[in-house]
Design a protein that fits this description.
581 residues, Alpha-Beta Plaits, Rossmann fold, 3 domains, five-stranded mixed sheet, 35% helix, binds iron/sulfur cluster
C-alpha cells in the first residue's frame, strides 16, 4: 500500500492504482466523460486532468498511476480553466439542442458545462459533418450530439464482442458508427443497448413508443393491458429519488392504474410459464442427450447473437418464447377468449429493462393471437418514468397498489429472473421437484448467484449429475461457446443474458452518471432486492403458482403439450448471411 495526498486528504491505496481510483477513496469527485472502469481507460476526453506536485503538465487522473508521497490537486484554478476550455471546445462542435433533447436534465456534458460556467458560444466556426441513424428498431444515433468519447465503441467491442460500431475517419471528421458508413440495422448489432446506457450525452437515445401508448390510453378504443418485467420494480424509483435498487412495486402498480391501464399484470407470471415449459424441455434434453447443452432463450440479444455469430448452436436454444412473449401470447389467446373479445380488441404493453425487447416484439412467429404482433408496445423503464412525469403523477407519494388477479400472480422464482442466474435457479427448483421423490426444501441455489460474468456448477438431481453454466455479457458468452465448440467444456444447461449482470443492468434501465456507474455495483444492488422479494413471497416455485396450475388445467393442457407448444414456443433463423434486422 502507498500513501498519497489528494486535496489535502491522505489516503492509502494499492500500488498501481490511478489517481482517479485514489480520489474515490479520498471522497473527491473528479469529472470524467470517456472513462468507463476496466473498459475504456484511454484518457481521451481530458476532463479528469489534475495537478501533480513536481510534474510540469496536467495529467489525466484516469491513466496516471500514484506513487508514494504524491501530492495531487484536483481543483486548482489551472485545472478548472483546463476543464472549462475542454468543455467549450466540445460545445463548439455540438448540436446544443438541449430543450428538445431526450437527455436534457440527465446529460453529463450539460451538467459539467453548467458546473464550469461554460460559454457555449465561445469558439464559433465550422461544424463537423454528422448524420442520424434511425434504422434500428431500438435506438437512434444522432452524431451531432456525439463527443467521440468512444465509450459505446468500447462497450460493444470489449463487453459484448459484437463490434457493430467503430471509429471512422480522422481528426475533425471523426465519426462513430458502422463500417463504411453503413446503417446499424444492417450490422451485427444485437440491440442490447449497453452503448446507450453508457453514452454521456443525447447521441444515443431510445426509439420510443411512449407517445403511441399515451394516445391509445387516451382513445380508450381497446382494453389496455400492461405488465412489467421483474427488474422494473427495483429500478423505476431511481429517477424519482428512491435509493438504487429500492423495490417500488406498489407505487408502480398505482402509477400504471392512474395512467389509465385496465389490467395491471406481472410478467413474473410469464416467467413462471417460461419455467414450466423450459424445465419440461430440459428434462427431455437430459433424457435424450439431444440439445446438449440447452441454452435459455429469455434474452433476445443473446438469441440474435447466436443467430448472427454461431448459427450452428441455434438448435440448442430453448424453443420457449421469452416471458414477455409468453405473457402477450397468453393475453391474446387465453385472456381474449375469457373476455370473449377479439385479440385485436386488446392492446398489450410490456415495461422492460431492455431495448432488445422492441426487436423481439417484431420477430416472426410472435403472433399466437393471429392478429398482428402479440405485444403491441414495449416501453423501457426510462419511457415509463417520462410518462409518469408528463402525466403529473406524484410517484413517491403514491399509495401501494396490487396486481390484478390471475395473470398478476407470480412466484418468487419468477421475480429472480431479473438477476443473472435467476432463470437457472427458478428452473432448478421446478426440475428438482419434478425429478426427485420429495419436494425441495432449501430452494436457494447459491452457486448460481452473484454478478460474476461466468459461473459454473454441478448439481445432483435424482442421482444424475447436471452440469450448469450461467453467463452474462456477450464476450463471456462467446468465450464459453468457443470452449464448448472445442470440447474443452461440456454442459447440460446454460443460462445466458447479454447485459453484464443480467436484466438488472439492462439497456432500458435508468441512466446514471459515470461516477455512479464506475463506483457502484448497480446490477448487484438491484438483484439483492429481487432476491429479498423472492424470500417474502409465500410461493417460491413456478409450478406451485395457483394461476399457473389453473391455466394448464383449463387451457394449455400439459406443459410441453401440443397447445402449449403452439402458443408458447417459437422458432429462430440463421442471420449469419443476411444481417438485416
Ligand atoms: S446531448 Fe446534452 S448538451 Fe447536447 S443537446 Fe442533449 S442535453 Fe444538451
Ligand atoms: S446495441 Fe449493443 S450490439 Fe448494438 S451497437 Fe450498441 S452495444 Fe453494440
Ligand atoms: S455516441 Fe455517446 S458514447 Fe458513443 S462516442 Fe458519442 S458521446 Fe460517446
Amino acid at each position: 500500500m502507498i500513501k498519497v495526498t489528494i486535496d489535502n486528504v491522505v489516503v492509502e491505496v494499492e500500488e498501481g492504482s490511478t489517481i482517479l481510483t485514489a480520489s474515490v477513496k479520498a471522497k473527491v469527485k473528479i469529472p470524467t466523460l470517456c472513462y468507463l472502469k476496466g473498459i475504456n481507460e484511454i484518457g481521451g476526453c481530458r476532463m479528469c486532468v489534475v495537478e501533480v506536485e513536481g510534474v510540469k503538465n496536467l495529467v489525466t487522473a484516469c491513466t496516471y498511476p500514484v506513487t508514494e508521497g504524491m501530492i495531487v490537486r484536483t481543483n486548482s484554478p489551472r485545472v478548472r480553466a483546463s476543464r472549462k476550455c475542454t468543455l467549450e471546445l466540445l460545445l463548439s462542435d455540438h448540436n446544443k439542442d438541449c430543450l428538445s433533447c431526450e437527455r436534457n436534465g440527465n446529460c453529463e456534458l450539460q451538467a459539467l458545462s453548467d458546473e464550469y460556467d461554460c460559454d457555449s458560444k465561445k469558439y464559433s466556426g465550422e461544424f463537423s459533418k454528422s448524420n442520424i441513424d434511425d434504422s434500428s428498431v431500438s435506438f437512434v444515433r444522432d452524431n451531432s450530439k456525439c463527443i467521440k468519447c468512444r465509450k459505446c465503441v468500447a462497450v460493444c467491442q470489449v463487453v459484448q464482442s459484437v463490434d457493430a460500431i467503430g471509429v471512422g475517419k480522422r481528426g475533425f471528421n471523426t465519426q462513430i458508427g458502422c463500417a463504411f458508413e453503413g446503417k446499424i440495422n444492417e450490422s451485427t448489432c444485437v440491440n442490447c443497448g449497453q452503448c446507450l446506457i453508457n453514452c454521456p450525452t443525447g447521441a444515443l437515445t431510445d426509439k420510443s413508443q411512449k407517445l403511441e401508448v399515451l394516445e391509445q390510453l387516451a382513445q380508450k378504443k381497446k382494453r389496455m393491458i400492461v405488465a412489467m418485467a421483474p427488474s422494473v420494480r427495483v429500478t423505476l424509483g431511481e429517477h424519482f429519488g428512491s435509493k438504487i435498487g429500492e423495490n417500488v412495486e406498489g407505487k408502480m402498480i398505482s402509477a400504471l392504474r392512474r395512467l389509465g391501464f385496465d389490467d395491471v399484470f406481472d410478467i413474473d407470471f410469464g416467467a413462471d410459464l417460461t419455467i414450466m415449459e423450459e424445465s419440461h424441455e430440459l428434462i427431455s434434453a437430459l433424457k435424450s442427450g439431444e440439445k446438449k447443452p440447452l441454452f435459455t432463450s429469455c434474452c433476445p440479444s443473446w438469441v440474435k447473437f447466436v443467430e448472427i455469430f454461431y448459427p450452428e448452436f441455434i438448435k440448442n436454444i430453448s424453443t420457449c418464447k421469452s416471458p414477455q412473449q409468453m405473457m402477450s401470447a397468453t393475453i391474446k389467446t387465453f385472456y381474449a377468449e375469457k373476455l370473449k373479445v377479439k385479440p385485436s380488441d386488446l392492446y398489450f404493453v410490456s415495461i422492460m429493462p431492455c431495448i432488445a425487447k422492441k426487436f423481439e416484439r417484431l420477430r416472426d412467429d410472435q403472433s399466437a393471437g393471429g392478429m398482428g404482433q402479440d405485444t403491441d408496445a414495449v416501453l423501457t423503464v426510462r419511457d415509463l418514468t417520462e410518462m409518469i412525469k408528463v402525466c403529473g403523477i406524484d410517484f413517491m407519494n403514491l399509495e401501494d397498489g396490487k396486481f390484478d388477479e390471475m395473470l398478476g400472480l407470480s412466484s418468487g422464482a419468477g421475480v429472480i429472473f431479473g438477476a443473472t442466474g435467476g432463470v437457472m435457479e427458478a428452473a432448478l427448483r421446478t426440475l428438482s421437484d419434478t425429478l426427485e421423490k420429495n419436494p425441495l426444501k432449501k430452494v436457494e441455489y447459491l452457486l448460481v448467484r452473484g454478478i460474476s460474468g461466468t459461473k459454473e456448477a454441478e448439481i445432483d438431481i435424482a442421482g444424475k449429475k447436471v452440469k450448469l453454466a450461467v453467463v452474462s455479457g456477450l464476450n463471456n458468452a462467446r468465450t464459453l461457446l468457443e470452449k464448448i465448440k472445442s470440447g474443452e467444456k461440456e454442459y447440460d444447461f446454460v443460462e445466458v443474458m447479454a447485459c453484464p449482470g443480467g436484466c438488472a443492468n439492462g439497456g432500458g434501465m435508468p441512466i446514471h452518471p459515470a461516477y455512479v456507474v464506475n463506483n457502484r455495483e448497480l446490477a448487484k444492488e438491484r438483484a439483492d432486492n429481487l432476491y429479498a422479494s423472492d424470500v417474502k413471497n409465500n410461493l417460491r416455485k413456478s409450478h406451485e403458482n395457483p394461476s399457473i396450475k389453473f391455466i394448464y388445467e383449463n387451457y394449455f393442457g400439459k406443459a410441453g403439450g401440443e397447445k402449449a407448444h403452439k402458443i408458447l414456443h417459437t422458432t429462430y433463423i440463421d442471420r449469419s448471411k443476411n444481417l438485416k434486422s
